[in-house]
UniProtKB/TrEMBL annotation:
<dbReference type="InterPro" id="IPR029382">
    <property type="entry name" value="NCU-G1"/>
</dbReference>
<comment type="similarity">
    <text>Belongs to the GLMP family.</text>
</comment>
<keyword id="KW-1133">Transmembrane helix</keyword>
<keyword id="KW-0458">Lysosome</keyword>
<comment type="subunit">
    <text>Interacts (via lumenal domain) with lysosomal protein MFSD1; the interaction starts while both proteins are still in the endoplasmic reticulum and is required for stabilization of MFSD1 in lysosomes but has no direct effect on its targeting to lysosomes or transporter activity.</text>
</comment>
<dbReference type="GO" id="GO:0005765">
    <property type="term" value="C:lysosomal membrane"/>
</dbReference>
<protein>
    <recommendedName>
        <fullName>Lysosomal protein NCU-G1-B</fullName>
    </recommendedName>
</protein>
<keyword id="KW-0732">Signal</keyword>
<feature type="transmembrane region" description="Helical">
    <location>
        <begin position="381"/>
        <end position="407"/>
    </location>
</feature>
<keyword id="KW-0472">Membrane</keyword>
<keyword id="KW-0325">Glycoprotein</keyword>
<dbReference type="Pfam" id="PF15065">
    <property type="entry name" value="NCU-G1"/>
</dbReference>
<comment type="function">
    <text>Required to protect lysosomal transporter MFSD1 from lysosomal proteolysis and for MFSD1 lysosomal localization.</text>
</comment>
<feature type="signal peptide">
    <location>
        <begin position="1"/>
        <end position="26"/>
    </location>
</feature>
<keyword id="KW-0812">Transmembrane</keyword>
């Protein structure tokens, strides 16, 4: 009886310790797809078959809660609201889906205290361009020339989004999929797709596939897949416009970190992070990626190709897209005030002489979006071991060689002194 009681007490205290650590050092993550939805657009779809989708991933910690509002309403966007631990969000779907910007503004509201440095990442447009000169960067084709027929802007708002679902094996995830069907003799079959997949975790780890981006409880992992899209040009490449929206007074900026170590991503020695607060990254939000995407689902080293991020713009050419995003549903007109700083770029997929998109008709790119200091690839113990093994032998030889030379010199000196001494001694004696 008594021992059973002790066992029980021990069990309870273990549980208490466990839950203490869970709240003190961790985050509890939950996901709700289409929260508060009371309109048919998210349950049965629009009349044209597309769905209105929101995934609300909530990461509750002891100091703050991160609310990720991920949506394809308007344009694909990730809004990250940082607030007090007990806060919650309200979604007014009627207003969210309104064509009237005034009604959309404020359709997502926070119950609780907003903390500093909420931010958003908005995927504004998919650009397909004819890379006639094989430059693999979209910047070569615009030159302020709006009449060029060498590129086409695909509006994400005109894509037919399937209903958001979780990814297999992770309940804290969301897949936004645009499937292009082919109507073949009255039977529709999926032929191509474009999808944004998000995965959140309550621990630190790495993607099981390349480029093995590091995830942790403060970020979500994104995979953007362009699968079997039908191209408009012979030398088509794709590029996606991205606008970073920061609420610190810093200007969001992209920093490049170089590493000696390509252990996690063979062949890649660079990492980029686009922080909303470059002067103090631990307080800001970020989008982090490596300059590599893959042209096959096996994501091996051979299928890797480059991701080029163009020079920064202020993102204001994309104002009409931003106004359609869930970032606007939360921030409203504040989005275009001095309280908010935006920055834009295009991520272009591909590398000169890689055979363009049609070579494989497949591109997948990974990134993380999160709060705080972006993870860095530290040189691992294994690599330190390998380096020291490589450096070790010569170092030992140099070290011992040096000691040997010093000792020998010292001995020679001593010999000389002895000799001199004995010489003089013998001289005295003689
Ligand atoms: C959404 O907002 C409208 C207008 O502001 C209001 O009439 C309606 O009751 C709200 N819906 C919900 C579910 O709160
Ligand atoms: C948009 O909605 C606001 C508030 O409901 C209303 O005052 C305004 O007239 C509407 N604008 C348009 C163009 O319908
Ligand atoms: C497309 O780009 C090529 C190479 O720069 C150029 O020769 C051609 O005139 C461009 N076409 C149009 C319609 O701009
Ligand atoms: C489907 O209808 C909605 C609402 O009218 C519209 O916003 C969206 O662009 C349409 N999608 C397509 C693929 O036509
Ligand atoms: C998107 O939809 C297509 C067709 O239904 C499917 O084959 C594909 O696996 C889906 N993509 C993802 C990432 O779920
Ligand atoms: C396929 O196309 C035919 C002819 O255009 C049309 O009658 C039929 O409804 C379509 N089927 C589907 C499943 O969309
Ligand atoms: C890719 O698209 C082509 C036509 O553009 C089609 O014939 C083929 O079946 C598609 N492949 C897959 C895997 O869906
Ligand atoms: C995550 O964020 C919390 C609070 O903002 C911080 O205390 C913690 O160190 C961060 N953890 C990681 C792995 O970045
Ligand atoms: C993408 O590049 C084009 C051409 O340089 C530019 O007009 C556009 O603003 C860029 N997009 C973003 C989000 O910066
Ligand atoms: C990619 O798709 C194009 C048609 O859009 C086709 O001509 C080409 O053969 C495809 N490439 C592969 C590797 O399947």
């Amino acid at each position: 009886m008594a021992s059973a009681c002790i066992v029980k007490m021990k069990f309870v205290s273990v549980l208490l310790v466990f839950s203490y650590f869970a709240t003190a050092n961790g985050r509890k993550i939950t996901t709700v797809l289409n929260p508060d939805c009371d309109v048919p657009e998210c349950t049965a779809g629009y009349k044209n078959g597309s769905y209105a989708n929101i995934a609300h991933i909530k990461a509750v910690g002891s100091e703050d809660t991160l609310h990720y509002v991920i949506s394809t309403i308007g344009v694909p966007s990730v809004l990250v609201i940082r607030s007090d631990p007990t806060s919650s969000l309200n979604f007014n779907w009627t207003n969210l889906l309104s064509d009237n910007a005034t009604e959309r503004s404020g359709s997502i509201t926070l119950n609780g205290k907003a903390l500093k440095n909420s931010f958003a990442v908005v995927f504004t447009e998919l650009i397909e361009y004819n890379d006639v000169d094989d430059k693999a960067t979209i910047a070569s084709y615009f030159h302020g020339d709006t009449k060029s027929t060498n590129y086409t802007i695909h509006d994400f708002g005109e894509m037919m989004w399937s209903q958001v679902v979780t990814a297999p094996g992770n309940k804290n995830s969301a897949v936004f999929n645009y499937t292009i069907f082919k109507n073949d003799s009255n039977v529709e079959k999926p032929e191509a797709s474009l999808s944004f997949t998000f995965n959140a975790y309550d621990n630190t780890g790495r993607q099981s596939v390349l480029p093995k981006m590091e995830y942790n409880m403060n970020n979500t992992l994104l995979d953007l897949l362009l699968n079997n899209l039908t191209v408009l040009y012979e030398k088509s490449r794709f590029s996606v416009g991205v606008v970073m929206i920061g609420t610190s007074q810093d200007k969001p900026d992209i920093t490049e970190t170089r590493s000696l170590d390509d252990e996690y991503t063979p062949g890649v020695f660079k990492m980029f992070d686009w922080s909303t607060k470059p002067s103090s990254k631990e307080d800001g939000g970020y989008l982090e990626w490596k300059p590599i995407c893959y042209t096959s689902s096996s994501r091996n080293r051979l299928s890797g190709t480059y991701v080029n991020s163009d020079d920064r713009t202020d993102g204001m050419h994309q104002k009409h897209y931003l106004e359609r995003s869930v970032a606007y549903s939360y921030f409203g007109d504040k989005l275009f005030s001095t309280e908010v700083v935006t920055s834009g770029t295009n991520m272009s997929f591909g590398l000169t002489q890689d055979g363009f998109y049609v070579k494989k008709n497949y591109t997948v790119w990974s990134a993380t979006i999160g709060h705080g200091a972006p993870p860095q690839d530290a040189i691992s113990i294994l690599v330190i071991g390998v380096i020291s093994a490589g450096l070790g032998l010569p170092v030992v030889i140099i070290l011992f060689g040096g000691i040997f030379v010093i000792v020998k010199k010292h001995m020679a000196k001593k010999d000389q002194v002895m000799r001199n001494f004995s010489n003089s001694y013998s001289q005295i004696n003689s």
